[in-house]
């Protein structure tokens, strides 16, 4: 895995990472010498070897018996070390107790420099808790006060700083202190420790999507900034130590903010069936300060089904549903009776439930297989006991129903997505159960669910059912509404520990640092009640208004010109369209990705053609076209959104492009990542593959937002189906452009390359020399897609300006032969996003999610289909070598659709 293995998740809760040093570590016990980074933290030091086969070594300062300097070495004697991430495998930490001596030589700093700082922290670790906390705060304050925002990070010399403050960046289980700076055109966040980046930059005009007020530690002192899809930074959750500073920044950002739908409007839309139950619950969670980026306030969804034993699930049967008018703790009358008896004898302040319905531990209970690193962080380097893990939905429901202190609800992942959190796709060793010795692997599904995807689909159908729609407002009253607190909460059997409620404690008024830390830990770990949204009973949904799925039926064929012209066009369409494009209909819909799909490709597996999709969610997925089923879902490069993909001819190797400026070679048959290399200065936007006739190798083209296209040599290895790609030594030439390159395509013969740019330019280049052959008549806006015809004689381009152009490129110089404006396209304002060729027709994808079939003979749209939405249709492709035509489309909605012609009826 490329990059550093170190992350803030390896620290203890509340621990702060300061800085790192390049060192060589000498362990006298085994006489080993290892180069790496020594990382200085507030409660520990960590040594991260450069070679990932060796574990990261963590030494808690409280276990250090001495820290001294000998000659040019810093020597640490300790009684315990912790080993983590050996071979870069996520596994429980190994705690070794013995006498250890670690020696460090520093490459670029002096040992005295580190020793002085470390000795202060070591001394603090030996003090009583109160003195230790006070000294630690003094050290942190002193170190951070010496760090100022570096004006060199400003992108524009004319920017003026309008706001600056100390903040904490919050992400799941991590809080990282730094500084936020607002200028006239950007927002900057500079972490004090440069982890994971030096500075985050968000352009106010083009990057920022919206700003939302958030709570942190039950205080109204945080902002969550969401960025648009093209940005590397997707969100920024900032917590302030003073509410006034948070208010000030929010007011300054408010004119740039894209406001969200108001609560009243959303409720009305839900009542009338415009918003689904799922979307409305997501909206309410966000409005009540629940965020996917804060595990202490993760969105909460209800259990709606209680039947996990039947062979089939009858959604029309009311008996399969949970009573939504009661909190989980009150579903079992016998358990409730015992709780009420305890409540009657309890001194003030009284509470009914000593555990919450959603806390970090519960979130990771469900998502442990997907985020094992977070589980290790939460549980001090260990996984939970195998018997207590999320092993079975039926078992979990029974424990929630009958357990003495288990009242947890569900997370949104049970009703959306593919159910990947139910599968141990990382192959983590969670241990063996004591009952039968079986290893903890995938979650056991109820009999009525065949696959995780089937489970999620059926639970979603249950959530959107008529029965749940009639009752959901009762559950909303408990979680977000008038039954949430006070006397009404007692009557509704819905009262939790006081520290769960907003306003229960003012942390700013707590002077004693130990007491404040205790409160913070309780609030973080125990669970927090959502912000109260409604003080009156929530209205019910109008009967029978259940949202219907997006319609995939086609609209009428576009009617233009005389009837005679239409008849002629239809006749020609039927004659050349042997693939029967006009009879296409949806065959299979994969809910697919959580974010926009950015690339489609095909490859052959055991004689069958399979499709591959990649997305900004970082996942690569594969589908069998004949069977219409998904067969693979992997995340090839951790934390790297994927922007493009292509298959190397005759192999199972794929080249992937990322939003992190990388190109990777990935073997899909064995799910092996061969290499990942930064090859551009900005994100990869497009990839293409051609042949080098002189060398017999392949030529890879990578386009980027850094205004360049680079040509690389991909060499054939041992056989025709194996390739070797080693940037930067395989770089052939770099093609400079005047703006970001957005699309490219190789001539079928591989001798030419066409490129399109963000500002509308179109170019032809010679391959592999990189000589610019021609500049073509461009677009007035971004070139969305550019393709050579299958025979290489023509080139078509489409853009955000809604124009389609066709060039004859087998003549010198190339000439434009058609343009949609001149040929009077049915919709001059069509915003095209992607295209594919099939004979004399072109398939176009639009920003509205429509797929158009464009007849090049009449230069008219002969059919329009709503394929995706909301959002654009981003990718479209025609599968090669399939018995019957298969068109694959994908969009910003994350779905992947397979299209086939209607069966011919005799």
Question: If you had to describe this structure to a student in words, what would you say it looks like?
Answer:
- This protein folds into four domains: 8-127, Roll (PH-domain like), CATH 2.30.29; 151-256, PH-domain like, CATH 2.30.29; 284-292 and 300-526, Neurobeachin, Chain: A, domain 1, CATH 1.10.1540; 563-901, Methylamine Dehydrogenase, Chain H.
- Helix 1 (111-125) runs antiparallel to helix 2 (129-145) and helix 7 packs antiparallel against helix 8.
- 41% of the residues are buried.
- The chain has 906 residues and is α+β, with helices and mostly antiparallel strands.
- The chain has a seven-stranded antiparallel sheet with strand order 11-10-9-8-14-13-12, with helices on one face. Strands 1-2-3-4-6-7 form a six-stranded antiparallel β-barrel.
- WD repeats lie at residues 677-722, 734-775, 776-810.
- Residues 156-254 form the BEACH-type PH domain.
- This is Neutral sphingomyelinase n-smase activation associated factor fan.
């Amino acid at each position: 895995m490329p990059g550093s293995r170190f992350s803030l998740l390896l620290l203890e809760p509340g621990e702060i990472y300061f800085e790192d040093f390049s060192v060589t570590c000498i362990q006298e016990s085994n006489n080993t010498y290892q180069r790496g980074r020594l990382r200085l933290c507030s409660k520990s030091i960590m040594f991260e070897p450069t070679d990932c086969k060796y574990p990261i070594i963590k030494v808690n300062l409280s276990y250090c018996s001495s820290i001294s300097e000998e000659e040019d070495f810093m020597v640490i004697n300790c009684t315990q070390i912790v080993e983590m991430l050996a071979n870069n495998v996520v596994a429980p930490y190994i705690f070794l107790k013995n006498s250890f001596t670690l020696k460090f030589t520093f490459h670029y700093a002096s040992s005295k420099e580190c020793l002085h700082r470390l000795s202060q922290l070591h001394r603090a670790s030996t003090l009583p808790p109160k003195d230790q906390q006070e000294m630690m705060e003094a050290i942190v304050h002193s170190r951070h006060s010496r760090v100022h925002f570096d004006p060199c990070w400003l992108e524009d010399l004319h920017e003026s700083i309008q706001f600056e403050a100390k903040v904490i960046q919050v992400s799941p289980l991590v809080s990282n202190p730094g500084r936020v700076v607002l200028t006239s055109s950007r927002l900057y966040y500079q972490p004090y420790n440069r982890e994971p980046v030096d500075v985050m930059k968000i352009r106010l005009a083009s990057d920022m999507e919206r700003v939302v007020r958030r709570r942190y530690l039950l205080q109204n002192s945080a902002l969550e900034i969401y960025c648009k899809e093209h940005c590397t930074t997707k969100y920024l959750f900032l917590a302030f130590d003073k509410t006034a500073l948070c208010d000030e920044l929010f007011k300054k950002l408010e004119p740039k903010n894209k406001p969200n739908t108001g609560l009243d409007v959303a409720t009305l839309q839900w009542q009338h069936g415009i918003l689904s139950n799922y979307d409305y619950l997501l909206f309410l969670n966000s409005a009540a300060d629940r965020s996917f980026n804060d595990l202490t306030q993760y969105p909460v969804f209800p259990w709606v089904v209680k039947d996990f034993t039947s062979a089939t699930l009858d959604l029309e049967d009311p008996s399969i549903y949970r009573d939504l008018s009661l909190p989980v703790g009150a579903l079992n009358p016998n358990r409730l009776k015992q709780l009420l008896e305890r409540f009657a004898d309890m001194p003030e302040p009284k509470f009914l439930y000593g555990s919450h319905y959603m806390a970090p531990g519960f979130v990771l209970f469900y998502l442990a297989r997907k985020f094992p690193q977070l589980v290790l962080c939460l549980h001090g380097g260990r996984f939970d006991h195998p018997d207590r893990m999320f092993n079975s939905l039926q078992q979990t429901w029974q424990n929630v129903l009958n357990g003495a202190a288990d009242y947890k609800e569900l997370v949104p992942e049970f009703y959306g997505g593919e159910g990947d959190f139910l599968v141990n796709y990382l192959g983590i060793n969670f241990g063996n159960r004591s009952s039968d010795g079986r290893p903890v692997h995938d979650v056991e599904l109820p009999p009525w669910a065949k696959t995780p995807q089937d489970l999620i689909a059926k639970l979603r159908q249950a959530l959107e059912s008529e029965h749940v729609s009639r009752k959901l407002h009762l559950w909303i009253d408990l979680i977000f509404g008038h039954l949430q607190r006070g006397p009404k909460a007692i009557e509704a059997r819905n009262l939790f520990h006081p520290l769960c409620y907003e306003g229960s404690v003012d942390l700013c008024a707590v002077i004693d640092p130990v007491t404040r830390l205790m409160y913070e830990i309780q609030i973080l770990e125990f669970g927090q009640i959502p912000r109260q949204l409604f003080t009156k009973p929530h209205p019910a949904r109008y009967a029978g208004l259940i949202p219907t799925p997006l319609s995939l039926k086609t609209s009428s064929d576009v009617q233009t010109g005389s009837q005679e012209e239409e008849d002629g066009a239809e006749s020609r369409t039927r004659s050349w369209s042997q693939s029967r494009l006009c009879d296409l209909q949806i065959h299979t819909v994969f809910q697919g990705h959580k974010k926009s799909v950015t690339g489609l490709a095909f490859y052959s597996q055991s004689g069958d053609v399979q499709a591959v999709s990649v997305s900004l969610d970082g996942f690569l997925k594969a589908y069998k076209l004949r069977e219409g089923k998904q067969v693979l879902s992997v995340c090839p490069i951790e934390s790297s959104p994927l922007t493009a993909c292509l298959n190397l001819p005759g192999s199972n190797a794929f080249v992937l492009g990322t939003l992190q400026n990388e190109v990777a070679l990935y073997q899909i048959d064995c799910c092996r990542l061969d290499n990942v290399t930064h090859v551009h200065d900005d994100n990869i936007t497009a990839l293409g593959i051609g042949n080098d006739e002189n060398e017999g190798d392949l030529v890879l083209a990578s386009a980027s937002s850094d205004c360049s296209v680079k040509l690389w040599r991909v060499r054939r290895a041992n056989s025709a189906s194996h390739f070797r790609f080693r940037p930067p030594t395989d770089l052939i030439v770099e093609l400079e452009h005047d703006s970001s390159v957005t699309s490219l395509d190789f001539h079928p013969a591989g001798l030419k390359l066409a490129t399109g740019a963000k500002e509308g330019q179109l170019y032809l280049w010679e391959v592999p020399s990189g000589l610019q052959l021609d500049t073509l008549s461009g677009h007035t806006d971004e070139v969305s897609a550019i393709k050579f015809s299958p025979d290489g004689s023509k080139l078509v381009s489409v853009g955000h300006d809604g124009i389609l152009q066709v060039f004859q490129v087998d003549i010198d110089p190339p000439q434009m032969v058609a343009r949609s404006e001149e040929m009077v396209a049915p919709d001059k304002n069509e915003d095209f996003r992607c295209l594919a060729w099939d004979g004399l027709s072109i398939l176009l994808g639009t920003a509205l999610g429509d797929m158009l079939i464009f007849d090049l003979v009449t230069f008219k749209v002969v059919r329009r289909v709503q394929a995706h939405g909301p959002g654009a249709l981003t990718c479209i492709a025609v599968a090669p070598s399939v018995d019957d035509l298969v068109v694959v489309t994908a969009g910003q909605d994350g779905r992947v659709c397979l299209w086939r012609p209607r069966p011919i009826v005799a």
